[in-house]
User: Fold this.
Amino acid sequence: MIRLGVVGFGLRAGGIYRILKELDPDFRLGGIVDPDEKNIRGKLPEEERKVPFFKDLADLLKKGKVDAVLIGTRCNLHTELAVQALKYKIPIWLEKPVSISMEQALTLEKACRKKTDRILVSFPLRATPVYERTREIINSGRLGRIVHFNAVNYVSYGGVYFETAYRNFEVTQGLFLQKATHDFDYLCKILNSPVRRIAAMWSRGRIFGGNKPENLRCGECTETETCMESPLNRMRGNTGGDTGNHLCPFSIRLGTPETGMNEDASSALIELENGIHGVYSQVFFTRRAGWRGATFSGYKGTLSFDWPKAEIRLTEHFSPFTTVMNAPVKDSHFGGDYELGRSFRDMILKGRPPLADIVDGLNSVYACLAAKQSAETGEFVNVRHFGDPFPKGWK
Assistant:
């Protein structure tokens, strides 16, 4: 039996636990920390509804006798809880982003400098079949020396960042940290280099946000006939998203560009330490046009991949051939969550290192924080790396 402790048993953590159970039925819930005990118990399988709940992580780890812990809370709590969990000699699954500020990131780096194999960071994109085959082709030299990349993420479910708890900027600190942290990670991994410097910009308050009341829901609004975000019009246009009585995405609660708010879209010009450069863009108001993938260009060829289609297209520059490769379309981050689950199981049972460790998690955060700073200042920002000297005066 593998007894798992969970802190923050929401949609994401619940999904991960279900995957772990699929991979190995020996997984059991050893304890949960979450204020919504009644609701969570009601959704658990009958045989697990007697799982003990604990007041906090320390209580769970002292009394729960768990073999590993999964941290799936709101993002602003990830660092604090990871630092606490590192005091115990157990594997940790930490949701991304691992930190949301430079202060948090430095605190976490200090705590885990000598414990980098203890945390698996939730970066499933680097574990997908499409990613693995793309990396294999790039490393084979078939494209020649890579010079440029262009990566995109048109998020068809972007409404979650404006009508759920993710709209709270004090928790998210923007969508570079929330979303691009995945993409910066796989780009660095696939191109074998960390980010050297970054320049970024964003559009905020042009689509979402506004002057509607703070907690307004669609069921209380008089504009459901004309508002394209109402359940009525989402169903009519088959545009996806929550068709229930969701929070208004045009609420003052989203903040303003001056006070801070999630962006409608953002882009970054990125230079890696190995000299490769490229562009990354993410858009959060697209409907029925979801697209996530990248194009890599070398002298000998160009390769593009598309995760939703599970497709890779390789064009040879000096031969009249284009090769198209398709993999089975998979759910749960295009199949990557299952590979992360296998890695976590191996950490627990076999002591193997994580597929994505805290060095990867923090390097991605440092790149995201640099992008955020650049978008705020309009300047190129050099990126810190795990292991660099701590800033002068920082304790």
Q: What stands out?
A: The radius of gyration is 21 Å. The first helix runs from residue 11 to 23.
